[in-house]
Amino acid sequence: MMAEEEEEVKEILPKLQELVDQLYSFRECYFETHGVEDAGRKQQDVREEMEKTLQQMEEVVGSVQGKAQVLMLTGKALNVTPDYSPKAEELLSKAVKLEPKLVEAWNQLGEVYWKKGDVAAAHTCFSGALTHCKNKVSLQNLSMVLRQLRTDSGDEHSRHVMDSVRQAKLAVQMDILDGRSWYILGNAYLSLYFSTGQNPKISQQALSAYAQAEKVDRTASSNPDLHLNRATLHKYEENYAEALEGFSRAAALDPAWPEPQQREQQLLDFLNRLTSLLESKGKVKTRKLQSMLGSLRPAHLGPCGDGRYQSASGQKVTLEHKPLSALQPGVNSGAVVLGKVVFSLTMEEKVPLTIPFPVFVWRRPSCWW
After folding, report:
1. Which of 77, 103, 175, 303, by CA, is between 20 and 30 Å from 13?
2. On the CB side of 270, how many CA atoms lie within 13 Å of its CA?
3. Can you tell which superkingdom this protein's organism belongs to (predicted)?
4. What is the spatial distance between Cα 253 and Cα 259, in angstroms, rounded to a whole number?
């Protein structure tokens, strides 16, 4: 009898796997068969497809519904929506108890716990899966969950972020053509960017990872999270046109998600305020403005007052006093500008703080979680 059951499982597993693969393909490739105008229906369409798939699976399963791999595939089908499913947790928990080395069941159970809000349990699942077999899905998910773990200090959080980057890199190394790995690496770099003082090199690494995700995976361009995260980075780097485009694209791809629309409106409000203050010169009266300009003296350059600057490495640099109009985009070596703060303007996130004369930018460290 046991042998007959094993044969039956071997016979039906490919059919079940095909049904589940088709379900996930429907979700991931939704915009290949639907227009962006259908974005508001996507989640409902996925749920309907899930119900249809579960019914088809039930017809195939028969008497072997209690087998580990059958439980895993059924739990995975239930896990296709963004909502937490108690039934999926029940089935996947049974699957890992019956077959502790079933890595895909551990990965699916970790995602269920993540949706449930139990980040520690999700971390345990993904870490445990890697003890059985090194695989890119566990590495991808571990990279994400590390950034969400509760910590007691900023140093501990920074270590988790660094570890997150390492796990994401390992996932990419396992399959350089996996767009999800590249996307998650971009998110890890984004977190690192905000937790380590906003190094421009790290921001470029994040942008490169996002671009690579879109290059190797045709569905990445339909990922609203990618567009939102990349737009956030563009905003903090003051690439406002790209930021607005990204927020708008994320909102179009997921109309039920309020955050992209809120971020876009916040940025538009900020730019409108900035434009108004620039046009009115910070609403500073003409006499006061002339007084501020008249008080500017080369001596106010402090240690650079004699036209020379010594870097931290000991190198001496000769400086040239230049007006803002003479500066070029990028690094202007050997140039020094003297100015007065006319007004300051902050975003709701408090970073960056814009101090125009007409516009200077000062950035202070922030956090990304």
Report:
1. 175
2. 23
3. Eukaryota
4. 12
